[in-house]
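Progress narrative, work stream C.
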Amino acid sequence: MRYVILYLKGMLMGAADIVPGVSGGTVALITGIYKKLLESINNISTDNIKLARTVGFKAVWKKINGPFLLPVFGGILSSILVFSRILEWLIKNEPLELWSFFFGLLVASIIYLFKLKLSFTIFNFLYLFFGALISFMVTLIDVTENQSSLWYLFLSGFVGISAMILPGLSGAYILIIMGVYNTILSNVRLAQDLVINFDKSQFFETASVLGVFIFGIILGLKVF
């Protein structure tokens, strides 16, 4: 039952990660797994992996808290695969209603974080001001939609995942600003379609896009 609950929490995180305005980190914080998630990710290192030669895979799996990470990331992946197709359809067919919903989620997240962590001190207001200023400056970046160069997709994954694991900062929103949100959503959908209708040329194109993006995510997740 414990693993089922962790899986469901992972699904909630995955759904939040692909919704602009909501942070998967916020959901992890709300569900009580945020600190343990960061500690478990931090335990994944080359030194610990090398220990498998001496102490065995089972001991290393326990050391990196694999029984915790597997259901959480399994839930995240499942949620992304399910909801990415739905979101892509809504963006094309019901954009006004969808973005209104996203805006409501963003406002609710801000209110929650104020209640949970923020105190009304002069320093916190200064941090709030500088954070808002930086965010506004990011929105002024002139980036055309559907950037497809591999180095840019890698950078998007690297930056996007840092936002996804920070409470209150939406990784999906960062991807929108960087102009790759729709590109990633459509390629996730194409990857699912290829399971049924395989096409060699489409496979290599989709694998290149998602492979580089995921590599950026993995590296960014470890670094941040």
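Work stream C, second folded protein:
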Amino acid sequence: MQGILKLAYKLLVNDRAKFIALLIGITFAVFLMIQMTSLFAGVLDKSSSTVTNVGAKVWVMDPAVTTVANSIGMPDYVLDAVRSMNGVKYAVPLYYGAALVKLRDGTFQPVTVIGLDDTSLYGRPQLLEGKIDDIFAENGFIVVKDVEFPKMENPKMGTEFELNDHKGVIVGIAQVASSGLFGIPTLYTTYNRAIQYVPSPRFTISYVLVEPKSAADIPEIQRQVKALGYVALTKDQFIDHISTFYKYQTGLGTNMLLMTVISFIVGLSISGQTFYTFILENLEKFGALKAIGAKGSELVYMILFQASFTALTGYGLGVGLCVGMITAAKTAVPDYSSKVTYFNLLMAFVMVVIIAGISSYVGVRKVLKIEPFDIFRG
């Protein structure tokens, strides 16, 4: 068997043009599949950045909320009602809104303002500079140092700006686990300051953050909140809820799916056609092997080996090319949203296996039908 596989390898790489054409087809298909799905995974990851950064176990919100940025104000009695529910250890309000700040050079910059509970500062980020208590100082804001940080003109401690004709002062510089999706900086302040500085509707509570007494109490909390007319989601459920919105209620998911299917079809058509041509050109060699005693099963092993070797090599090259391009893109554009996940790699691998299987089937059918006397008679 080892000799048969070695012979199959030599037949495959002997015609370098055909071998390279096979590799290019599969490599290009894998590259497109992983690139598209990684971009989608990056978008989904960043769309839930606030949920990840705040880290609350349970989020109470209006039923119409689709993403964390699409918050709908709730009346104050919701906070009081949640605090009195069975299984709730404590609950705090969170403000989430957009605003325009006027920088030192007179330009305006959109920002996301997150207002933390004045008493507990629950959901506060990790500080790189400054002290968290300074957020209570007059006009105090904390800026997140991420890829959007330069858009605030790289502020330092004590940097001043204007927000809706109110003075703001940077009293802390923080880091978070994930930057936002829409390319705008993030400012943290207290809840009361946020609702005073940022124009808001009548109801100002964007979310109620809940700390349950235990994980077993979460279903009961969700039931009580539902009876109140609102929705309580765990951190993971909220992230899934946001992902579902982007997948099925926007054109993003459909476009990514179409590009992935097109990539698969391109890879299948190129590799299948090229591999079939390769089999036709080497038909005499397979016939000669059959004439000197090679079994049909051995010829099948040869073709399967050739298709598998080409597919796996193309898969590796495609993954490497995609990772290299994503790395280069993130170096040039820091807020580029792309994330290679195990699911992306597994999906591309399964599709490559399907491509190899179909290509092998086409070749096997042709080789098994050949008769040695037809070769020698020609």
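The chain has two domains: 2-46+251-377, 75-229. No further action is required on this item.
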